[in-house]
Amino acid sequence: MIGIYKTVRRVGRGLPCGLIGWACCIGLSAPPHLAGLSAQSVPTFAAVSIKKLQPSMAVHLGPDRTDPAGVHFSRTSLRGLIAYAYGIKLYQIAGLQPGWMATVLVVDATTSAPATDQELRLMMRRALAERFGLRLSAAPKQMPVLALVVAPGGLKLKPLELGQDPTPGPPQPGALNFRVDSTQQLIRVLAMARIGNLFFGRTIVDETGLTGRYNLSFYLRESPTTTPGGRPAIALDWRGMPAALKKVGLELKPKTAPMVVYTIESAHPPVGN
Predict the structure, then answer these.
(1) CA atoms of 189 and 146, how far apart (whole Å)
(2) Which pLDDT score, from 0 to 100, does residue 171 have?
């Protein structure tokens, strides 16, 4: 069954490309774009609180809130923190996967003075090295991706008028209706898909060239299941998605693309608080 648990439907927002160079080791040392700075020169949070939520369940959500005073995560994991700190996607993180890395974490990190987004990310890198003993290596690789493209025969979507919202489809028993108005929103929905307990190993890239707003509505069938922690949940069946995309003149094509892959070389459960 290919599905997503409705109890974890929220998706972290897209993050910018990594700020690190090709093939380097990442720990408390300064990132390459800050070459010449010592470890002590890397900014640090005034306080970092890391709490565990039970039961454990793999989530990798981005921050709920960031501002010059700090950053807050209500449900995340070590991989989610890495993605935020280095400005990368989850599929760019490889390496160690012990069970404790699936623990849900609540993280509050505050600054002693107003900080920029870049400074907050650098502070998080240092916190990960100090609290988790995290060390990463980064190298370019050809990675499998899925390209969202316009299918042969052309697009069959109706453009939206200025200020118009996508129209919901009629209710269908046992199905959830999704409404999106752009290919960017569509990709965010597709990124929620799970195979078993794992996210897709492939990212989805937009190669449609479409920049307008469209009326796109589709359904996913629901079925009862359980979460990795044994709680009842509803899984969404993604197997009908290729046919649904075809109806509106879109398709997903497998390909490869170069990207930096960050490998977890060492890490341990968080220490102190």
Answers:
(1) 14
(2) 85
CB contact set of 38 (below 8 Å; sequence gap of 6+): 30
DSSP letter, residue 159: B
Q: What is the DSSP string of 49-113?
A: EEEEESS--------SEEETTEEEEEEE-HHHHHHHHHT--GGGEEE---GGGG-EEEEEEE-SS
Using 70 as the pLDDT threshold, list the residues of the chain that sit under it: 1-41, 54-61, 192-202, 227-229
Q: CA–CA separation, 269 vs 100, rounded Å?
A: 7
Residue with tokens 């960017």: 184
Question: What pLDDT does 155 receive?
Answer: 94
Cα distance between residue 3 and residue 223, in whole Å: 9
What's the DSSP call for residue 133?
A: -
pTM: 0.61
User: Which sequence spans correspond to the domains of the chain?
Assistant: 13-140+262-266, 142-258
State both tokens at 211.
């920049």
Q: How far apart are CA 200 and CA 190, in angstroms?
A: 9
CB 78 within 8 A of CB 136: no
Beta bridge partner(s), residue 139:
261
